[in-house]
Amino acid sequence: MLELSHLSKTFNPGTVNAKLALDDLSLSVADGDFISIIGANGAGKSTLFNAICGSFMTDTGSIVLDGKDVTLMPEHQRARSIGRLFQDPMRGTAPGMSIEENLALAAGHGGWLSPISRSDRKLFREKLALLGMGLEDRMQQPVGLLSGGQRQALTLMMATINPPKLLLLDEHTAALDPATAEKVLDLTMRIVSEQKLTCLMITHNMASALELGSRTIMMDRGRIIYDVAGEQRKALTVSDLLDRFREASGKALDNDRMLLT
Amino acid sequence: MPPIFSMLQTTAELGLINALVVLSLFLSYTMLGVCDLSTDGCFTLGAVTGAVVAISGHPYLAIPAAMCAGMLSGLITATLQTRMGVNSLLAGIIVNTGLYSINLLITNNKAQLNMIKTPTVFTQLRALIGPSPLGIYTTLFIALAAVALVIVFLSLFLRTRMGLSIRATGNNPDMVRASSIDPRVTTTVGLVISGAITALSGCLLAQSQKSVDVNIGSGMVTVALASLLIGGTFAGRGKIPLRAIGAVIGSLIFQLVYTVALRLKMPGFMLKLVSAVIVVIAISAPYLRSQFPALKRRFAHARKRGDC
User: Is B164 an interface residue toward A (CB < 8 Å)?
Assistant: First the structure.
């Protein structure tokens, strides 16, 4: 499904601030995989997502998504097959526009000169009702009035309204309060399993990294230092995971937001 | 007709013609989030292009010709900022400067063009109406029709997928890219359309005044921005058509204040200063208001210390 081979990226090359953000990273993701990604601050997790999305072009290596080489494709074209959620609930939606206008942009139905159709409105209503947040009755309201959790749920809906080949979740519940975070995560898991999406999820919650999905990878200094799946993963505990990190990187895992329980 | 009516009529005519520039900024500044400083040059470009075509004997063709010229100007401003890495304010200033020469090129290096005997859309319509008493309202009628058409166009256009994309580009470009839309394209389309509307305004002003000066557009962007911000205080939120009408009302109010000020013996050259001050007040007022509680507290604190 997703084939990353030998990706490298150095920011500010040739200066004192040069930083090797991705270091000859290779990763093969199978169709339907749900991979959780953990790692210290600055390990390159978000950089990896930026590389996959095309926010910048990598210095070396290739990215093949669903059999198609997208290495040189601009960001907005890749977005057709990639859905992405950020930690900041404000990043995924346009605050000054209404809920239905946001959804219409994400859905991209019809020609450039066609307004939102009645059937689209009906579809949006049905989809929003699934969130259980009452947003289906507020479709004309600007998104700026919604709470962080509602905006993140809406972003999730927008990212998956046309099922993407790949869904990237970048700590998308980290900025929400615990109860809302749980609700958004439940929604995410439901949509991922219903649409059978292939998904990568960065998380700082070690327990959910092990509990959710089918595979866990650990990153450090732009490399993947640990990759575990199947039976072996089921047997792991959070403290095992911390030990593995220390073994592989030669230091303790330091992430100021890391939740160990 | 009593002089007060004729004065109000002239105010309404000028206010409506300028309202087209305000609507153009409504698209580029309010919706797209780009402050297009090429507006002055683009307005003049529309005026001189329209004038030259009208003088050559095509009063109707003058309007689409001026609008095409405006679109071209918008296209260049947009290309500079989306494809060539020029800062968007700078792109406008550069195009504005370049247009000064282009405008003189179009007028064949004449600072003024006279259209006293030239048939224009206004004289054509007046001839069509004949000697009826409605004849004096032709300018008002054409300006009103142009404004109404542009409002209807913008209201419909901003509801389409392209229109929504343009609005989102001013709101959150990340989200536009995530929706598989290239924000460079939406910025370009937005600036091309706003260029056409600005040039239309210049063309109509030149034809209604029967003369055009290469400095006709200077300071237009500030005047229009002042009107837009005045209009925003009436209909800043709400549906697009309402906000567009608010922009037109802002333009009419600005023109009315200007006319009254002239009657009160304000010299005409003060117009630009007045508009500059209005823009400063309108933009800084929300900021200053937010600073007020802190100022008040500091003041109270200082007074208490003084008492001790």
Answer: yes
